[in-house]
């Protein structure tokens, strides 16, 4: 039996989290008369996920594109890794404010990243007509930023937990959600999978954790998630593996073990089947730079 080698990055997602919130004003001038607006432009995106939640004012996503679109208060854009990031304060507004985060999702966050896609790529959701959600999401954004900037010893973990709260709240308005009416036992199973992703779990052990037989649980899980139990588990393992390949120099054998694969050979075989590229080639092609920090908003 191979000795378990723990990852040197036990809190990978929390350590790589970057969060901020504040006001945005024109680059020059205080009255909004300057044509130069605060703009974030990254043509190749970043290796992580990026979310932007507008709190005040109006922003334009992909302002130079024919199919650009606006982000108003209580709307958000979600941009996956390596997709262009291009947002700017709308010309009609002298200032605005937004919450942003760059993050590598925990397994428990993955189901809440399936947003409706715009015609030019990024995910988009709006809750501006949902008076119930507005104060909860706004409060969570402020708390997430406050945690991240605090002196708490676990500030990044607290911020990451609050970011997951934000994603779960926003997901309530997703018209294409496959999680509407999610069975509580499936929700518990998702958390169990997230906590035990590196262990040799199977449908029977997951079912036991929620007090069901394997056959009954598999039926409920498939009806709720529209995929099989082990298909879902493997997708989450491969997602974690992609992050570790791109963001660490851990040996592939260690990544395989820490993502729950029985051997590096089996991991490479499954990775190649899903992505048509070997883990080594994926690592070589992935962007290895750390995600850039957002420019500090004006005071």
Keywords:
single chain; 299 residues; 2 domains; 5-stranded antiparallel beta sheet; 4-stranded antiparallel beta sheet; disordered N terminus; disordered C terminus; Helix-turn-helix domain-containing protein; transcription; transcription regulation; Tscrpt_reg_AraC-type_HTH
Overall geometry comes to globular
Averaged pLDDT, please?
84
Which radius of gyration do the C-alpha atoms yield? 20 Å
- How many domains? 2
Q: SSE order in H/E notation?
A: HEEEEEEEEEHHHHHHHHH
Summarize the structure in short.
This protein is of the alpha+beta class and 299 residues long. It has helices at residues 12-15, 133-149, 155-170, 184-195, 203-209, 214-225, 229-247, 252-258, 264-275, 279-285; strands spanning 18-24, 39-42, 49-56, 59-61, 69-71, 75-79, 85-89, 96-103, 123-126. Keywords: DNA-binding, Transcription, Transcription regulation.
């Amino acid at each position: 039996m191979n000795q378990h080698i723990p990852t040197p990055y036990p809190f990978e997602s929390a350590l790589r989290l970057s969060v901020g919130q504040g006001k945005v004003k024109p680059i020059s001038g205080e009255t909004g008369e300057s044509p130069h607006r605060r703009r974030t432009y990254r043509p190749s995106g970043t290796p992580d996920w990026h979310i932007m939640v507008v709190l005040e004012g109006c922003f334009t996503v992909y302002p130079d594109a024919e199919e650009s679109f606006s982000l108003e208060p209580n709307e958000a854009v979600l941009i996956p890794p390596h997709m262009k990031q291009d947002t700017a304060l709308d010309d009609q507004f002298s200032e605005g404010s937004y919450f942003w985060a760059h993050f590598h999702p925990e397994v428990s966050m993955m189901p809440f990243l399936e947003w409706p896609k715009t015609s030019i790529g990024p995910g988009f959701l709006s809750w501006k007509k949902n008076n119930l959600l507005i104060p909860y999401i706004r409060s969570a954004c402020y708390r997430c930023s406050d945690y991240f900037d605090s002196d708490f010893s676990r500030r990044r973990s607290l911020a990451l937990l609050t970011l997951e709260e934000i994603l779960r709240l926003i997901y309530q308005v997703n018209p294409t959600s496959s999680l509407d009416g999610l069975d509580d036992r499936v929700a518990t199973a998702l958390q169990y999978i997230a906590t035990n992703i590196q262990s040799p779990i199977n449908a029977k052990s997951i079912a036991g954790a929620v007090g069901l037989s394997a056959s009954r649980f598999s039926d409920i899980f498939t009806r709720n998630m529209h995929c099989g139990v082990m298909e879902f588990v493997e997708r989450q393992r491969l997602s974690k593996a992609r992050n570790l390949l791109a963001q660490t120099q851990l040996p592939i054998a260690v990544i395989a073990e820490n993502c729950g694969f029985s051997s590096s050979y089996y991991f490479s075989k499954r990775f190649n089947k899903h992505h048509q590229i070997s883990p080594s080639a994926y690592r070589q092609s992935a962007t290895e730079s750390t995600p850039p920090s957002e420019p500090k908003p004006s005071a």
